[in-house]
Design a protein that fits this description.
Shape of chain A: globular
CATH architecture of chain B: 3-Layer(aba) Sandwich
Order of helices and strands of chain B: EEEHEEHEHHHEHEHEEH
CATH superfamily of chain B: P-loop containing nucleotide triphosphate hydrolases
Number of domains of chain A: 2
Number of helices of chain B: 8
CATH class of chain B: Alpha Beta
Number of domains of chain B: 1
Largest sheet of chain B: 6 strands, mixed
Radius of gyration of chain A: 25 Å
Structural class of chain B: alpha/beta
Number of helices of chain A: 22
Largest sheet of chain A: 2 strands, antiparallel
Helix content of chain B: 25-40%
Helix content of chain A: over 70%
Shape of chain B: globular
Strand order of the largest sheet of chain B: 6-7-8-3-9-10
Number of strands of chain B: 10
Oligomer: heterodimer
């Protein structure tokens, strides 16, 4: 065990040392912490006591806690099902490639190596759920969730993630090499999900105007609390939040039995688990390597090639048609998976906040876009030499690359905000301006990307580039937002209150469009002066 | 032909290339040798127009950033440059369209055939092995008939047949009047056909040797080890 504990603690020690050796990483870590503090403070400000003109305390109102419990269960179930499903293809791994190459051949017992992997995985699962903490502001404002309560949800998330990895490993071990077993397990997972979906969806047919209440009641029903791991962890979290001992105890006991059972199963029945984790380790290693090289890989495992040939485009325009072809192969239905998740989230959010007006929905859709724009396929084109070497005007190449991003942005905005607008009962003009406003912000974000590549392309420090990228996006957005608020206030003051939202959004759209065009013009020769040193 | 005049490339305070000057004539094959970190890939990327630098690089008389220079230049990177979601055949179509070539697919099919990729023309980039991706990357560069071709470690990962085929392609391109610059660690693989060899150390040319009988002197391999090991001991 000496070797393993040395490896584990040296890893932790060196990671901390690295922070101080690379100031950019330290700045990034501090930036994340500062953002978190900001989120917590802004969340707490929402629950400050307010008084009316007579000095009487206005009571704070919150949405029902059952909605939050239902959301937690849905999130946990999604994480558990997606994680476990991977066991049917590549399995799951707690290990890195150096572990496989250096640790596995050592004369250390495989059970001890499994224990080491599990300890590492617990830490990773916790870190992966860190994004949940940034949801504090709205969860506190809407559901009066405290920060310790959110930490509890995060703990549950880490537990579910951990169990999903264990399950994936066990599924891989059970099904590898046998198509019959694979089909059987797949059938069980799909049947379980279908049954849960029907349990929630069928009552909606007769729920009339109480769709949300019906869905929440179905999700929180005892039957779904029996959903493996996700239901138990959700029961444990809900029990802790409400101070109910029975769900707390039952949920925790079920999770502990599950984890212990699986560990015993793996160690007793199959001490030689190395083969089971090898493929998953290799898959995650190539993904990490690609990320380090600045490449983003989102190619699905099974691609339907369909009709072959680019068919259109000449000179610069071929980049646009090539990207369209690649997008067609990468998507599942009409969009890729991350976009579909964003669309579903915004529509769901609109459903929950349907009395809050269009601005919170638009703001959340724009906030998510800050991350999704950085995953655009057009940006990946910058990591290969062709776009720099093809003998066409650099500005034309840049415009055709962006055209693909703009098309995707327009489609995504329409699919997201038209249903959301209908749920919010906005008029057609307001829906149109919401869609245009999101496209406007998207253009500013794309232009920020180009600006950062132009200014920072020579830097090999990806962390620094990301910090500058997010700061640039925030700074470039602020003027448009301020202008929109001013115009909306002005419209209200001159008796156009009914059109205030549309006027404000229109102002933001026009301003953002001008900012994006100006930035693009300034960076028009970027592809001639790029630095491909870090790609 | 192409020429590199007083090129210096700095990353912050570190100079990856220091005041490098050389040229490669039409119908000439130049090789770049040197240990890891000597600056070979950096000078190659500068010539390909992928890095900013101080100094001047011209390709057939045009600055390497000009469109005409880009039309005449081909660059095979060390890591295969292949799109995951395009088939082999679509890569070749992409190059024909991007370089606005009116000719049909005969020449690109010939290249694929020579590199044993024609029977894999419907395979996606991501489905190819690393060696096959490298072969496709080479085909993509040769498909637009460049006059100046730069290869960065082209032989790594190739099977013996592909190495043999690539070597004969080098000689064909040379005989057709193209200028070739090849960076490699495999000294024995370039022994038969090089015209001039530059040995790089610490971002500079430590020696230049011509492959002429009248020059005589030490064999390339002997010279390479003498320079690199001497510098290694000095450090």
């Amino acid at each position: 065990m000496k070797g393993l504990s040395y490896l584990f603690f040296t890893h932790v020690k060196n990671n901390i040392k690295e922070l101080f050796r690379h100031p950019a990483r330290l700045v990034f870590a501090l930036f994340i912490v500062a953002m978190l503090v900001l989120v917590v403070l802004s969340g707490n400000l929402q629950s400050m006591p307010e008084y009316d003109e007579n000095g009487v305390l206005i009571p704070l109102t919150f949405r029902p806690a059952e909605e939050l419990q239902a959301m937690v269960l849905v999130l946990y179930a999604a994480i558990f099902v997606i994680g476990s499903y991977r066991g049917l293809s590549s399995g799951a791994s707690f290990y890195s490639m150096p572990d496989v190459n250096l640790l596995f051949p050592t004369p250390i017992s495989s059970r001890r190596i499994l224990l080491y992997g599990l300890m590492k995985q617990m830490g990773t699962s916790f870190l992966l759920g860190f994004f949940l903490l940034f949801q504090y502001a709205w969860l506190h404002g809407q559901y009066n969730l405290t920060f310790p309560g959110l930490l509890l949800i995060l703990m549950g998330y880490a537990l579910v993630m951990f169990c999903s990895q264990l399950t994936a490993m066990a599924i891989y071990s059970f099904t590898s090499g046998s198509e019959v077993r694979k089909r059987a397990v797949k059938g069980v997972i799909i049947a379980l999900c279908l049954a849960a979906a029907l349990w929630v969806l069928l009552p909606l047919l007769t729920a009339g105007d109480h769709l949300l209440a019906s869905a929440v009641a179905s999700v929180n029903a005892p039957v779904l609390r029996c959903f493996p791991v996700a239901g138990w962890a959700a029961a444990f979290v809900a029990g802790c939040l409400e101070g109910a001992a029975l769900p707390l105890g039952l949920g925790l006991a079920a999770c502990l039995i599950y984890v212990t059972g699986f560990i015993l199963l793996i160690t007793r029945s199959r001490a030689d688990f190395y083969e089971d984790v090898l493929q998953a380790t290799e898959v995650s290693f190539s993904a990490i390597t690609a990320k380090k090289e600045g490449k983003v890989t989102d190619t699905p495992a099974h691609i339907k090639v369909g009709k072959t040939g680019i068919g259109k485009g000449w000179g610069a325009s071929v980049f646009f048609y090539k990207l369209r072809l690649e997008n067609r192969r990468a998507r599942v239905l009409i969009m890729d998976i991350p976009s579909m998740i964003f669309i579903a989230f915004v529509i769901l959010f609109a459903f929950i906040m349907r009395n809050g007006g269009p601005i919170p929905i638009l703001a959340s859709s724009v906030y998510m876009m800050m991350f999704s724009i950085a995953l655009g396929r057009w940006l990946r084109e910058l990591t290969l030499p062709y776009v720099y070497m093809v003998p066409v005007s650099p500005f034309r190449k840049l415009l055709y690359l962006l055209l693909d991003g703009v098309c995707k942005l327009a489609l995504e905005s329409a699919l997201m905000l038209v249903p959301a607008g209908l749920i919010l009962r906005l008029n057609p003009a307001e829906i149109l301006f919401c869609v245009l406003a999101r496209i406007g912000f998207g253009l500013v974000f794309m232009a920020s990307n180009i600006l950062v590549e132009r200014l920072m392309g020579a830097s090999v420090n990806r962390v620094l580039i990301m910090i500058v990228y997010f700061l640039a996006m925030l700074l470039l957005c602020i003027p448009g937002v301020v202008l929109g608020i001013l115009l909306a206030t002005l419209a209200g003051a001159v008796g156009l209150a009914w059109a205030a939202v549309s006027v404000g959004l229109l102002g933001t759209v026009v301003f953002n469009l001008l900012v994006a065009l100006l930035l693009l013009f300034c960076c028009r020769n970027m592809l001639n002066f790029a630095e491909l040193n870090n790609k | 032909m192409f020429s590199v005049q007083n090129v210096t490339k700095r990353y912050g305070r570190i100079s990856a290339n220091k005041d490098i000057t050389f040229s490669v004539d039409d119908g000439q094959i130049a090789i770049l040798l040197g240990p890891n970190g000597a600056g070979k890939s950096t000078i190659i990327k500068c010539i390909a127009g992928l890095l900013r630098f101080e100094g001047e690089i011209t390709v057939c008389g045009h600055s390497n950033k000009d469109l005409e220079a880009k039309r005449l230049l081909g660059y095979v990177p060390e890591m295969p440059a292949v799109y995951d979601l395009l088939t082999v055949e679509e890569h070749m179509e992409f190059i024909r369209r991007a370089y606005q070539m009116d000719e049909g697919r005969e020449y690109s099919d010939q290249l694929l055939e020579r590199m044993e990729l024609l029977d894999k023309k419907d395979k996606l980039g991501k489905e190819l092995s690393k060696g096959m991706q490298q072969k496709l990357s080479i085909c993509c560069v040769l498909a637009h008939r460049p006059r100046v071709i730069i290869f960065d470690e082209p032989l790594v990962g190739l099977d013996p047949h592909a190495i043999k085929e690539l070597k004969s392609l080098f000689v064909e391109q040379k005989n057709a009047g193209c200028s070739l610059l090849i960076s490699t660690h495999m000294l024995d693989s370039v022994e038969d056909y090089w015209d001039v060899a530059h040995i790089m150390m610490n971002g500079q040319f430590a020696a230049t040797k011509y492959n002429r009988e009248e020059d005589g002197g030490k064999a390339l391999e002997e010279l390479f080890f003498e320079i690199t090991e001497r510098n290694g001991q000095a450090q």
